[in-house]
Predict the 3D structure of the following.
Amino acid sequence: MKLTDFAQRADQIILLGQQAAATSGRTPYGGTHLSESAFMEFRVSALSFLRSTFGPEHPYCSTFDKETPTAIEFHALAGLGIMAAAKAEVLGGWNAEVTGLVSAEIFSDFLEMAEHLLSQKYKDAAAVMIGGVLEEHLRQLCRMHSMAVVHGGPDHKPKPADLLNSELAGAKIYSALDHKAVTT
């Protein structure tokens, strides 16, 4: 998935919010009420997008959930503001999960290059490239879970991939089966 895909989906959800806000009508109590179905389509789409992009514990998710409880114009406008801020964060590259997805896309390109090298009988070069991709992915997983990627002490030497792999499995970031696959 590309960064532009995220921006495009955010724009689609913002449009849903604008369409819901456009259904505004007066209630007998002097407030404004929106089409319930239009508002719910916006709300559920936005929550799904925010949770999958930022994770369920991120402030964008909790704030959106709290600030958009009912189909009134004020809540729709609050939701639109949150979605605009989330889109800006994604496009600005400030979100670690999205950055990880972009990195995954780059890693995929390196793996394709390694496959090409392997098909051309350059097995050593392919192995080095694949090893580098795997090691960097392990480092990103460690950083994502606030785990050290360098040894303590004055030299701050990077931890080797096998140690990162063991620490990730020990912290239950992934299963013993994944640990074994990475070791292999």
Observations:
- The radius of gyration is 22 Å.
- The beta strands are 25-26, 32-33.
- The mean pLDDT is 84.
- The chain has two domains: 3-91, 96-183.
